[in-house]
Design goal:
single chain; 2 domains
């Protein structure tokens, strides 16, 4: 129970700071001019999948590209584990997204 209370307190402080920093950034964004960014949805989604998830530009130099891709995908796997640790105390000490971690 103590771990859940501590995690709840840390989470409240973190979300409060996040909300404050978002408020500052949104104030700047609301002063910007509007732009049509929904004109080429298919092309934009393809670029996100190609350059963000597939890491296409990294493989121009094969050695460093492969190392960076492994670090990137390893980081994503660790994020799943971090979510497990974050919400675990609320589910009796163990919460698993996939059932086997």
């Amino acid at each position: 129970m103590g771990a859940a209370l501590l995690m709840t307190g840390v989470l409240i402080v973190a979300l409060g700071y996040f909300a404050y920093s978002c408020r500052l950034r949104f104030a700047i964004l609301f002063e910007a001019q509007p732009e049509d960014r929904f004109d080429q949805i298919g092309r934009r989604v393809k670029h996100v999948l190609t350059y963000m998830f597939a890491q296409k530009k990294l493989f121009k130099e094969l050695g460093p590209g492969i190392m960076h891709a492994l670090i990137f995908w390893g980081f994503l796997v660790l994020q799943v584990r971090s979510v497990n640790h974050l919400v675990g105390p609320y589910f009796g000490g163990h919460f698993s997204i996939f059932g086997f971690w």
